């Protein structure tokens, strides 16, 4: 059997040297890596080893011998335990530096571009209570419908009513809806037995409009007393404009099932972003931090230096927020998006805002881009805002064929962005700037914009 420098349950004093991508403290014992919850760089701590694996292990802090000057002492440990706010023990200015360094790291290690300047992260004045959406699991604990959040890497519910990073009106709505459902005798879903009724309560709220959508994720199609329940919810929460039953019958970790049934009101909410109005359906993507999304898009649009004659492509367009925010400045916008409902939202959103120079296509960005290249559509500026896995190589290929002057890359995963930037660099595109924007304060998630210019 292979031996390691530490064994399970051993207690040892260590100095934390680094913070992992997920926000865990890193310590080394004779070169062996240990990940430690709630421990910050510079701290000297006595730890107990919880788990020893072939490459690294996990430990927890028993005593703090020396604490970091950057520690935020005011936090609730449930926020770390559940992974809701895994950086909340670090003060906010240090969180912003941490994110800038994450981007610098991938630009050095993944893109092999150590000389690119990464600007200081744009942060929030009030870095909490910002989430405009919540997806809250429901369980039965001691006979009561209970809401909270799962403990990290488990499905053990930690009961919770103050979620810290969600808009407080959403926290209040969850408690109100939960208590109404409890009053009607609604049963919680039980994962192990795969029986019961209510799985999740999902809330979406317009940051400016204050409109709310409540989605009840339910294991069954039949929903007795739905009318009475809706009446009680809208009476208690007058800002609710939409109540949707989502049916999820599967034994799965995926929150939403395939079928949505509107129980009350309209199938969407509306909100404003950079002065335009957007319709947002249950299934469409919408940035969860409205104020910082405005910062992000503003920066990206200004950095693009758009001209009236420009043709712009908005790839991975969602409900159209980026393209419609800049449509007034350019000749034409083409958007593409794979979720049909989001494409319909984007078309409606163009109409609501009186925008006539935006065209939206449903389909995979890779496919649509090839079609554009074949049809000879010539874009001067291409915006991309892909999901975490980044761009497909053939998307980059078709984009380069089109010879745009600029590519504006918006990313929620710096590692795949760095990989893609290196591919663009091989085809003659140079990085002008990289700007991280903090859309997810108190968490380890990093969003950034990079402007690539044709040499
Ligand atoms: N730009 C939008 C959406 C960004 S999120 C906004 O800022 O709100 C990424 C979007 O890409 C999602 O709407 C997702 O549905 C879509 N998507 C994922 N894979 C895709 C693909 N292969 N082709 C086109 N769109 C895709
Ligand atoms: Ni991550």
Automatic annotation (TrEMBL):
Binding site for S-adenosyl-L-methionine: 287, 316, 337, 385
Domain TRAM: 5-63
Residues of the active site: 412
Keywords annotated in UniProt: Methyltransferase, S-adenosyl-L-methionine, Transferase
UniProt superkingdom: Bacteria
GO biological processes: rRNA base methylation
One Pfam family per UniProt: tRNA_U5-meth_tr
Single Gene Ontology MF annotation: rRNA (uridine-C5-)-methyltransferase activity
Family: Belongs to the class I-like SAM-binding methyltransferase superfamily. RNA M5U methyltransferase family.
Protein name according to UniProt: 23S rRNA (Uracil-5-)-methyltransferase RumA
Source organism (scientific name): Enterococcus sulfureus ATCC 49903
Higher taxonomy: Bacteria, Bacillati, Bacillota, Bacilli, Lactobacillales
């Amino acid at each position: 059997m292979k031996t390691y420098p530490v064994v399970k349950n051993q207690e040892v004093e260590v100095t934390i040297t680094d913070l992992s991508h997920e926000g865990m403290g890193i310590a080394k014992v004779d070169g062996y890596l240990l990940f430690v919850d709630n421990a910050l760089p510079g701290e000297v701590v006595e730890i107990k080893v919880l788990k020893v694996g072939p490459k690294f292990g996990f430990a927890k802090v028993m005593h703090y011998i020396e604490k970091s000057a950057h520690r935020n002492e005011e936090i609730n440990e449930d926020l770390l335990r559940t992974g809701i706010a895994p950086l909340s023990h670090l003060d906010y200015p240090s969180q912003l530096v941490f994110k800038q360094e994450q981007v610098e790291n991938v630009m050095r290690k993944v893109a092999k571009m150590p000389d690119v300047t990464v600007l200081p992260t744009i942060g929030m004045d009030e870095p909490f209570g910002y989430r405009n959406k919540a997806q809250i699991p429901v369980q039965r604990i001691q006979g009561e419908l209970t809401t909270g959040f799962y403990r990290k890497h488990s499905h053990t519910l930690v009961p919770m009513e103050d979620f810290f990073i969600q808009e407080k009106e959403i926290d209040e709505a969850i408690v109100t809806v939960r208590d109404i459902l409890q009053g009607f005798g609604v049963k919680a879903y039980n994962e192990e037995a795969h029986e019961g009724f209510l799985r999740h309560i999902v809330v979406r709220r317009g940051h400016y409009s204050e409109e709310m959508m409540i989605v009840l994720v339910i294991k069954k199609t039949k929903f007795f007393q739905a009318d009475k329940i809706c009446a009680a919810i809208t009476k208690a929460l007058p800002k609710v404009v939409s109540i949707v039953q989502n049916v999820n019958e599967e034994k799965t970790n995926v929150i939403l099932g395939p079928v949505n049934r509107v129980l009350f009101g309209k199938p969407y909410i509306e909100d404003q972003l950079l002065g335009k109005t957007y319709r947002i359906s249950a299934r469409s993507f919408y940035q969860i931090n409205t104020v910082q999304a405005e910062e992000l898009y503003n920066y990206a649009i200004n950095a693009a230096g758009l001209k009236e004659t420009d043709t712009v492509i908005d790839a991975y367009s969602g409900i159209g927020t980026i393209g419609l925010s800049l449509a007034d400045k350019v000749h034409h916008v083409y958007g593409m998006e794979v979720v049909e409902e989001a494409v319909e939202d984007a078309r409606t959103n163009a109409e609501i805002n009186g925008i006539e120079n935006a065209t939206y296509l449903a389909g995979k960005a890779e496919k649509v881009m090839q079609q554009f290249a074949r049809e000879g559509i010539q874009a001067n500026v291409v915006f991309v805002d892909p999901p975490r896995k980044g761009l497909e190589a053939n998307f980059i290929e078709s984009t380069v064929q089109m010879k745009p002057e600029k590519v504006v890359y918006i990313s929620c995963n710096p590692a795949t962005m760095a990989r893609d930037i290196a591919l663009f660099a091989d085809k003659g595109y140079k990085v002008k700037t990289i700007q991280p924007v903090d859309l997810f304060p108190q968490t380890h998630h990093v969003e950034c914009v990079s402007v690539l210019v044709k040499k």
